[in-house]
Amino acid sequence: MAASIEQARREVAALRPKDAGSNRLEIASNELDAIVSTTERASFDILQSAERLMDIGNRLRQSGGRDDICDAMEAEVMSIFTACSFQDLTGQRTSKVVNALRYVEQRVSAMLSIWNLEGVEGVQAAADTRPDAHLLGGPRSDGVNQDDVDALMSGATIIQTPTPAPAAETAKPAPAAARPVPLDQSAIDNLFD
Fold this sequence. Notes:
Pfam families: CheZ. This is Protein phosphatase CheZ. By secondary structure, the chain is mainly alpha-helical. It has six helices and two strands, in the order αααααββα. A two-stranded antiparallel ribbon has the order 1-2.
């Protein structure tokens, strides 16, 4: 029984990172919070654009536009409204996961404190050997470069540019980042052939 207790102490101590900035549970919670925030912001922008399209359709109808086209446009806008309801549901579910992670983090901290493991040295967390471990860092929290988005929206295409490899020694190289390149009209036409 003493060996089991000692093994449990070592496992719990391994959960506590050497430096405060590498707490896996806190990082996971923060990343999930960022996902909720980003999808909420994107959904809001999509819904605002859909509302503007609805207004444009109404003005088109009032100015004598064809009813069949106005009806089709209105139906598509309503589909956008319906599709964006995902954000509220996923946001609620993700918030529940974040709360669960924070609860586990609090319980682990309490166990470390009870067992006086705050200052335990020499206990290493097991290396993450999953094949996708190098992907788990996710995107930077500061989001996509607005210049890249603007270039893409103004008719640019994306080409691959190399990015630095992940910091972990066992990590596979990350996919290359994309950079926009302007398209001419024939290149755009070829997309639809």
